[in-house]
């Protein structure tokens, strides 16, 4: 069958497209192989580490147990720093408030030693409060050999400062505001003559007691004493609390364990103390606030945790421990309980500046002061605007009324004189101007006291002495 010319042209074009595609495929195949071989060469002879870096691990040792009031605050502060970095943290509890005996500490040491020997080495250790701090010092050459140790919440200031010469240990002292709080106590309770510290035999309590007595030299007119569970049972302690008279004021340091070894939790101990105590009770820590304590300059355990975590972060980034001195100051805050202030007739204006008052009744103005002040300013501006607008409207009305009167006078003058309205108006203006000019001129000359002119002025028809009133053409 004979093909038409158009059919032959279509077949030729199709054949050419097939040839072009085959040519491109033939050229692309060697190029693809070359790229693949080059990639394989790079991977074999220039290996790249594509694996993620192992996270760093930190061991946190608490002196107490998970329900102890300060624990969660410390952990919250630490995690607020660590959560932005690839750091994992294990937590161990010594539980020495409830079990302060040597057997508990020995069992803890054995358990922790077993765990450390069967896990990867920690990059750093954080110890919280005095018992864990002393445990870490005893184990720094054994269990924690060559591991940096950072402490926080330590009350034993002397022992903590000694670590400035230790190349393995540094940290944050729990710098209680003892002197400032006692100063506030004697100011708020002016009739008090004796300051009593409530304390037990725990290491942290005894460290705070030493600090308490060191402050006595700043208050020579007050007697410093202690009421200690070291020599009393809880029943004897409660009787002694009930016997404190109104001239005493108390500060709570540590009351957990009596002479028989009976240990109470913080809240239970505080409840028993408050049932018998009738005098103001101040405190240096946040736990217990709102449960019968007036307050004081309070330790912020969250900030303590933050500071310790920042130090650990510096160490993990390569800074030597010996280059980081022990931190001796902590950001403490004045905090008071409104209910206790009210119970002892203490007014809020007697408190130190920037004090935080807990449980204060809702005060609308105090809570919304910035917004109320802005509304008052806006209200004053609106009133001013309304006054100015009203004054403007009143002035416009007066001007319109005066204009109407002038127009009416002109109309009356025109009607009476028979002259055109414009001519009458011009005559009025001309007469007014002439009178004003004459009066002003003569008054100026009178001030200059020109005698001849003065005589003429006295005899002049426009003079007030003549008693005449000038007549216009309209009159």
Automatic annotation (TrEMBL):
Q: Where are the transmembrane segments?
A: 375-395
Question: Which key words are in the record?
Answer: Membrane, Transmembrane, Transmembrane helix
Q: Which domain of life is it from?
A: Bacteria
Looking at the Swiss-Prot or TrEMBL record, what is one Pfam family this protein matches? ABC_sub_bind
Q: What name does this protein carry?
A: Uncharacterized protein
The organism encoding this protein is: Desulfamplus magnetovallimortis
Q: What is the lineage of its organism?
A: Bacteria, Pseudomonadati, Thermodesulfobacteriota, Desulfobacteria, Desulfobacterales
